[in-house]
Design a protein that fits this description.
There is one protein chain. 19% of the residues are buried. It contains 7 helices and 17 strands. By secondary structure, it is α+β, with helices and mostly antiparallel strands. Strands 1, 3, 4, 8 and 11 form a 5-stranded mixed β-sheet that branches. A 4-stranded antiparallel β-sheet has the order 7-5-10-12, with no helix packed on it.
C-alpha cells in the first residue's frame, strides 16, 4: 500500500511539473519563431537572389559537362579518328644477278635500304612510333602484281615458302628496325634458286611487324629477279670488269667457248690484253674473233670492256722511226693520250689526222716492243 501511495504522489508531481514546463517551452518556441520571422524579413531580399544565382551556375555547369560528354561519345561513334596511310619503299635497287648463299646487295654493293614514306608528301616519315617500327623481309612470287593496290590476303597467297625438306628460303637476319623512318637490311641471302617456282623468279618484300592504331602501312615489293645457284657465280660477268679479269668475263665471250679459245691462241688472256689489242689494231682483233661474232655482239663486248676502270698511270714511248725529241704518251691499255714534242705535251684531240696516222703506223710497226712494255707494267 505504501508503494502505491508513493507512486501516485510522484505521478502527481510529475504531471504538475509537466504543465509548467509546457508553458515555458511554448513561450520559447513562439519567441524563436518571431526572431526567425524578423531575420527572414531582413535577409530574404538579399539571400534569395544570391542563392538562386549560385544554384543556377552549378546546375548549368553540371549540365554542360553532361552534354559535352554525350556529344564526344556521339562524335566518336559517328566520326572515328582519321587513319594515316603510310608505305614502305626500297630506297635502292638490288644488285643483279643474285646467287644462292651470296649476300643480297643494293646498288654498288651497298646494303639494302628501306624507307617509311608519307604518300601525301613523298618524304621519309621520321616521327612517331611507326618511324621506329620492326621490319620483316619475305619472299613473293615473281609474277605478283605489284602495280595495283593489293590486300593482305593477296600478299599471303603469294608468299613463297621453302621447298619441303629444304632450309628456310632466306638465311640471315630477316628482321630490322626503322631508325627515323629508314631501315637497313643487311646480311641476307637465298638458300635456294628460283627455278622451281611458277614464274621462275622471286620478289623481295618488306612489311611492318608491329601494329599501330589508326596507322596503315603498305608493304614494299621489289621488281622480279632470277636467283641462280651459287655455282653459277663461277661464270659470272663482272660489271665493271677489272683489267686482270680473264677475257671470258666480258659479255658475249663464254668460258671455254669458241671466242675464248680464239683469243687465247692470240695470247689475249685478260681484259687488259683485249683493250690493248683494240687500241693498237681493232681490225685485227675483230679478225681474231671471227665471223661468228656479229656486229651487235661486238659492240656489246666492246662497251663492256670499255667500262673497265683504268689506273692513272701513263707511259711514254719513243719509237725508232720518230725524231729524238718526239715521243708518244699513252695509258695502260695503249690508248694514245697525246704527243710529246720538244718536251711540250700536245693532247690527242689537238693532233692532226696526219699525226694520228703516223702514230698509228709506228705503233703497228713496233707492236712487239710495245706489247712487251705494257704486259709488264
Amino acid at each position: 500500500m505504501s508503494q502505491k501511495r508513493e507512486f501516485e504522489e510522484g505521478k502527481g508531481r510529475i504531471e504538475g511539473g509537466s504543465s509548467e514546463d509546457k508553458r515555458r517551452r511554448f513561450k520559447s518556441v513562439v519567441q524563436e519563431v518571431m526572431r526567425l520571422q524578423t531575420v527572414k524579413h531582413f535577409l530574404e531580399p538579399v539571400l534569395e537572389p544570391l542563392i538562386r544565382k549560385v544554384v543556377k551556375e552549378e546546375v548549368e555547369l553540371a549540365l554542360g559537362k553532361h552534354l559535352a560528354g554525350i556529344k564526344w561519345i556521339c562524335e566518336k561513334e559517328t566520326h572515328p579518328l582519321e587513319s594515316r596511310n603510310l608505305q614502305l619503299k626500297f630506297l635502292n635497287n638490288l644488285s643483279l644477278p643474285v646467287f644462292t648463299s651470296a649476300r643480297i646487295e643494293g646498288d654498288e654493293g651497298q646494303a639494302i635500304r628501306v624507307g617509311l614514306i608519307d604518300p601525301s608528301t613523298g618524304q621519309i616519315f621520321s616521327s612517331g612510333p611507326a618511324s621506329s617500327a620492326k621490319l620483316e623481309v619475305f619472299v613473293v612470287e615473281g609474277d605478283f602484281n605489284s602495280v595495283s593496290d593489293w590486300t593482305d590476303e593477296d600478299i599471303r597467297n603469294n608468299i613463297v615458302r621453302e621447298r619441303e625438306g629444304k632450309k628456310p628460303l632466306l638465311n640471315g637476319n630477316v628482321f630490322a628496325v626503322l631508325n627515323d623512318g629508314i631501315g637497313v637490311m643487311d646480311e641476307i641471302s637465298f638458300t635456294d634458286n628460283s627455278s622451281w617456282t611458277r614464274s621462275r623468279k622471286f620478289r623481295l618484300g618488306v612489311r611492318i611487324v608491329d601494329q599501330f592504331d589508326y596507322v596503315k602501312i603498305r608493304e614494299a615489293i621489289t621488281e622480279s629477279f632470277v636467283v641462280r645457284d651459287h655455282r653459277g657465280e663461277l661464270y659470272k660477268k663482272h660489271h665493271p670488269p677489272s683489267l686482270f679479269d680473264e677475257v671470258w668475263r666480258l659479255e658475249k665471250i663464254g668460258k671455254d667457248g669458241a671466242f675464248h679459245r680464239r683469243l687465247n691462241l692470240s695470247n689475249i688472256n685478260n681484259v687488259k690484253d683485249f683493250l690493248t689489242h683494240f687500241h693498237l689494231n681493232s681490225s685485227k682483233l675483230r679478225q681474231v674473233l671471227g665471223t661468228g661474232m656479229s656486229s651487235k655482239m661486238w659492240e656489246i663486248t666492246l662497251d663492256h670492256a670499255r667500262s673497265c676502270v683504268l689506273d692513272s698511270s701513263v707511259h711514254v714511248y719513243q719509237a725508232p722511226g720518230f725524231q729524238k725529241k718526239t715521243a708518244v704518251v699513252f695509258n695502260v691499255v695503249a690508248q694514245v693520250l697525246g704527243l710529246l714534242v720538244d718536251f711540250q705535251y700536245i693532247p690527242a684531240e689537238k693532233l692532226s689526222e696526219i699525226e694520228k696516222a703516223l702514230i698509228l703506223s709506228v705503233y703497228i710497226f713496233d707492236l712487239v716492243s710495245l706489247l712487251h712494255t705494257l704486259r709488264f707494267t
